[in-house]
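User: For a benchmark we're assembling, each entry needs the component sequences followed by a predicted structure for the full assembly. Here are entry 17's components. Please fill in the structure.
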Amino acid sequence: MDDSGETPPRSVIRRLSKYLFFIRQRSSEGSEWVLSHEIAETLSLTSATVRRDLSCLDFYGTPKRGYRAQQLAEALQKFLGADEEHSVILVGAGNLGKALALHQGFERHGFHIRAIYDHDPSVVGRRIGHFRVRAMSEIENDLKEQGVGFGVLAVPAGAAQGVADDLVSAGIRGILNLSLAHVTAPDHVSVVDSQVVARLQELACVSRYSAKEPTKPGKRK
Amino acid sequence: MDDSGETPPRSVIRRLSKYLFFIRQRSSEGSEWVLSHEIAETLSLTSATVRRDLSCLDFYGTPKRGYRAQQLAEALQKFLGADEEHSVILVGAGNLGKALALHQGFERHGFHIRAIYDHDPSVVGRRIGHFRVRAMSEIENDLKEQGVGFGVLAVPAGAAQGVADDLVSAGIRGILNLSLAHVTAPDHVSVVDSQVVARLQELACVSRYSAKEPTKPGKRK
DNA sequence: TAGATTGTTAATCGATTAACAATC
DNA sequence: TAGATTGTTAATCGATTAACAATC
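Assistant: Structure for entry 17:
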């Protein structure tokens, strides 16, 4: 059943994105139908989890046939907002910020970088791709004029919370935090973390422990 | 008590990294002691979670004083392997791979990039910083000679699983997957995901739903 | 000592999964 | 129809947290 109104947990949202990715692929290969246990096997899950996750959607499968791939993809896109265009501003024009600005991945998924900002006066005005780095002080006005959605924090850890506060008071809708600092915001502004180095550290730690337990049948896939 | 031998869940490992980050900061500011509820408040957790997490360590606090910052930092470093140097190879010399190679963050946390590989013959041999891109076919020998630890997948989604398989058979210890594809590996090789665009999608989805529920006292911080 | 914080147990909460009636 | 898969309930599992004895 459709629990409209209830925010699904992040774990579910994350899986739904993966389902969408897989189903688009299957659909482009010409499959008309997809089964819950096919999705599950591909993504190392159980079919019960897949069916339960899909029950968030206002879309139903057909016993014995499965889910219509094309239509399921559309329902997922709509639910996730993956069919919409989003505006993004990038704060921090260091190596990381530059890389993101030049990386095609954002555009390809509907996230359009509207501007890049930096604190450092000697960086303001420089070119990065087709952008010219703007001063932090311009954020507030820019957002007012353009009604921008999300802010990406590619600044040093020490500066992250301060910048986040500025973005919040400028009316940002959500923050993607790439710094190692913990960033908080009021309830109406979501914060999502994405730190490559932190994931590497996690990998190093996980692998050191799994190496210690020789060949215990693995719980962690 | 110290559960040595038990692999701690990834959620705990992730938090422990954050504790380490915070405690180093506190320590560098001159604090001799840290309290569980200080850590908790800073990171939006409860003090019970912090104390329970820290009980994985072979290190104990002192009732009424808290934890010695310097020593707790050392215990965390040792537990997480954050005091060790790690070798990493990078597969994929596109925009993302280039950015990581030039980004100082890896080095600064003890992850040394040993080599960069690419599938495309027209890219092999090119310079990226002080690296020269190597051919995929050289991975196996290189790993044998140098005993490399972790592989970072910065390749297109369609190529990810294939490259992962190659890394596994070459004896890699763990894989950091930056592609949108789901990647699997045998139990003894851990896979950790880190996809910036996926986190942006998550943010867009979360914020769209939190916007709908007007001012219900927020569960999600 | 009195008061506060730790380490840990037991209770709660939420997420995953097994199982099965409904159904094509 | 017989067989297979969905949607959903109930059971299980694991993670978080409240609560408190131990202790400095």
